[in-house]
Write a structure and sequence with these properties.
alpha/beta; six-stranded parallel beta sheet; 20% strand
Amino acid sequence: MNVKRSRLVVIDFQARLMPAIHDGPRLLANAGRLVAAAKLLDVPIVMTEQNPAGLGATVPDLAEAAPAISKMSFDACAAPAFIDAIAGDDDLILCGCEAHVCFGQTALSLLEHKRRVFVVQDAVGSRVPESKEVSLRRLERNGAEIVTTEAVVFEWLRTAEHPQFRAALALVK
């Protein structure tokens, strides 16, 4: 993952959904780390919200990072505003919910469109752990690279001599 060719995609971390997500607080904390690192290193951020009238807005801790793209289709690629927001050939670093529904369908669609997809497994959730596990295996079989929050941050930095190293390090500690 090259910081100059990356885009962070935050899928459906919504207020009414998160209480039902297994290990939700840890996943939100890792998503927050990714968002903070992206802002620190000038990585563009794209956010989505599935049916916000039903599931609520993006959780407050993440909401200020970028305006959310509202959608009704599970696959964000069906929303023209999403396609516009990810235009180009940047690597797409994905976190979000639910692994087997909106997140999974979006990632599979991006892979079908020959995009390079990195799935941040410790910032992806589902209500049931098995749904997440099966979805991650499926995404990996289809070409997604499975990574962690720390892996993303350190690959974006590349070196301890990076001017933002200390600030980024504080995010993952």
